[in-house]
Each structure stands twice: as C-alpha cells, then as structure tokens.
Write a structure and sequence with these properties.
Length: 210
C-alpha cells in the first residue's frame, strides 16, 4: 500500500524548506513551472488545488484522464493520485493547505463533503479562456499576499481560497475519465486506505475498541 506524502515529504521532494505557519494550520502557493514532471501515486496529508496548463495524464483512484487543455484539479487527503506530464511545457499554479487552515475560520465546512473534494466526485474541471484568467488572477493574488507583511494575510489567503472554490463550483466537471484494466486492484487499495483512515491503529499494542 502506498504511504502518505506528508507536508515535510512534499517540501523535501520539491527541494524546498518546509514553511511553518503557526496557529493557522498550513497554506502555501507555488508556480507549476517549478514542480516535478512526475508525482508519485499516493495519498497526501494535505489538500491541493492546481491550475494545470500543460498536457499530461492524471491517475486518480481507479481511473485516469488525459489533460490536454487548461484544467483545475482538486485533490484531498483520502484519494491517492499521480501526475505524469507529457512534456516539459508545464505552467499554472497550485496551492496546498491543511484542515487546520480551513477550520481556523470555519468558513468552508467539511471539505470532504463538498462536491469538489468528496469521495466519488469528479476532481477535474476544464476551464475556458475567461475562467482560466479569473482563476489565474486569484492564484497571483495569493502569491502576492503570502509574500506580504500584512498582519492578517492568512485571513486574506483564506478568503481567496474560499473565492477559488466558489468560482469552481459554478463550472461543470470533466466527464471523460477512463477506467483501468486492473481497476479491481485500484478499488481494493482505495478501500483499504479508506478503512485505515476510518479505523487507525498506530501500533500492534493499540487495540480497536468497538
């Protein structure tokens, strides 16, 4: 079974020092030009929203989709996924954040119950030119804000995240996912991961109490 990628593991993989945001959970935003062309198939311990400008293949749970036009990707800590870029021309942005960051103001509710992040939902939204411009502008504002010295910048970043989610909820999700030939293995792996998350056992000495 694939291990989870932690925030520390992510920063190590991309060659950056993990940024601490004490008291507000974690949030950061990046340009996709600096990301790796292939990401490992695994769950993450964080949420991630990506504006993908570039071609590639997204493997998501028991299915996959070919991304050949600008798209938004919403990933959560429950569903494993990987990205395989078709070429080096990869642009766009992505932000990653934790439950603690969102629940600091309790504005977005339970993300895993929303149609953007929920299990069984469609995580990819292809965007037209106007939508791409709107979304890119939000990411640019996030990038500028996180570099600022404004005392309440994380409240601003949370507001931009809220705006990004609502802008996407007005869009139609992609419907061109393809199943894997070995879909049963992917489904079994996903089920075991969900079971493990629902009933975690940290050590053999810690028994599950019903």
């Amino acid at each position: 079974m694939e291990s989870n990628e932690t925030l520390k593991g992510f920063y190590s993989r991309v060659g950056l020092e993990c940024v601490k945001t004490p008291g507000v959970g974690h949030f950061n935003v990046f340009s996709r030009e600096s990301c790796s062309l292939v990401t490992p198939y695994s769950r993450r311990d964080y949420y991630k929203i990506s504006l993908i400008i570039g071609k590639g293949k997204l493997n998501y749970a028991d299915k996959w989709i070919y991304v050949d036009q600008p798209a938004l990707l919403f990933s959560n800590p429950v569903i494993p996924y990987s990205w395989e870029a078709e070429n080096t021309d990869q642009r766009g942005f992505f932000c990653l954040f934790t439950d603690e960051f969102v629940h600091e103001a309790n504005r977005l509710g339970n993300l895993q119950d929303s149609r953007l992040f929920k299990i069984g939902g469609t995580p990819v939204f292809f965007v037209n030119e106007e939508q791409q411009e709107t979304v890119a502008d939000i990411f640019i504002k996030m990038t500028n804000e996180i570099q600022s010295d404004y005392l309440h910048k994380y409240d601003m970043l949370r507001a931009y995240l809220h705006l990004l989610i609502h802008e996407t909820m007005k869009m139609q999700p992609a419907e061109s996912f393809e199943p894997y030939q070995n879909a049963s293995q992917r489904i079994a792996s996903l089920f075991m991961e969900l079971l493990e998350r629902q009933f975690p056992i940290d050590s053999p000495e810690r028994f599950l109490k019903l």
